[in-house]
Amino acid sequence: MLIRVLKFRSLGAVLLLLLLGSPAWAESPAERVQRLIRELDHDEYIHRETAMAQLMSLGEAAMAPLLAALKHDSPEVRSRARAIVQVRLRADMIARFKELGSPERDADIDLEKGMWLIARIIDLEVEEQDLDKQLDALAAKVRAQFPPDADLRQVKAADAVSALRKVLFEDAKFSGSVADYDNPVNSSLSHVLKTREGLPILLSHLVVAVAQRADIPIVGVGIPGRYMCKYDLSQAPDKPTEELVLDPFGGGRLMTVAMLQNEIPGFQPTVHLQPSPHRDTLLRMLANLASDYLAVGKHNMANRVYEYQALLAASASSDLP
């Protein structure tokens, strides 16, 4: 009997020592993720590889801490965290682009979400909420050009366009990226908001996004060689007859049909001033990005963009107005 008691006590002591010596057994999920991130820089290779595999298996639960680890002091942690995030991000992006292109009605395709996803291809740390806040702030400045109780849907088209031009081009100084035109970052809405420079299509849809928040009906138009945007005259309260076209790449120049016919070879108003469909707009943005990646020799990134482009184009034949 005494021997059995001693054995039982010895076993209990061993279990207690194991528990005390293995704090990982009692750690929370968040603590486990942080421990595994620290072990990405372990002295032993096998520990680094094991930690990496375990973080990979945790999926979305580890994404936020891994994104934070991209700024870790340790180069090893940063490198391994980035590798994990890129694998997880690619799977996430494939799912998101499939979802983005799934609506049957073109108008239901979320253009701004698509612009965020494209920005994420370039910089995986871009946050959708951050882009929203910056666009909201610009729209608030446009609204401030009018009395507080003004309904901008009832403001004269020319006055609404004038307010957009003042805020975005006179004050904020948005314009085309001329010196660095083929740089892939010019396809990122985040980069455009930060530097105030970008490609014609990105700048145009920045104007569209800000205008929509201010209840001003601006649409993108796929003019050959120079994407622009215009006031949708079908929604103008004062029913003007002259088109109000903005050239954001040219610093917000107000263009007339005559000017466009003079400057754009083959320009046809009835064709090229039609609102660009959302899917076509995003496909054009992705085509620009892929082309720029090829131009700088980043073929793997270009192939990834082509993959997303194919996912978005997959159901294009079923689009309804």
Written account of the structure:
The protein contains 14 helices and six strands. The protein is mainly alpha-helical and 321 residues long. It has two domains: 2-99, no CATH class; 108-318. A four-stranded antiparallel sheet has the order 3-4-5-6.
Q: How does the SSE layout of this entry go?
A:
Layout: H1 2-21, H2 29-38, H3 45-58, H4 63-69, H5 75-100, H6 111-122, H7 128-143, H8 157-171, E1 175-176, H9 189-195, E2 197-198, H10 200-213, E3 218-221, E4 228-231, E5 245-247, E6 253-255, H11 257-263, H12 269-272, H13 278-295, H14 299-313
Parallel strand pairs: 1-2
Antiparallel strand pairs: 3-4, 4-5, 5-6
Pfam families: Transglut_core2 (PF13369)
Family: Belongs to the UPF0162 family.
Domain Protein SirB1 N-terminal: 131-286
At a glance:
The chain has 321 residues and is mainly α. Helices cover 58% and strands 6% of the residues. It has two domains: 2-99, no CATH class; 108-318.
Taken from the alpha-carbon principal axes, the silhouette is: elongated
Q: Strands of the biggest beta sheet: in what spatial order?
A: 3-4-5-6
Q: How many structural units, i.e. domains?
A: 2
How far apart the termini lie comes to: 86 Å
Low-confidence spans: pLDDT under 50, at least 5 residues? 1-22
- Rg is 27 Å
- How much β-strand is present in the residues? 5-15%
Q: Can you give the helix content as a percent range?
A: 55-70%
| Overall mean pLDDT | 89
Query: How many strand units?
Result: 6
Order of helices and strands: HHHHHHHHEHEHEEEEHHHH
Name the structural class. mainly alpha
Number of helices: 14
* Major pleated sheet: 4 strands, antiparallel
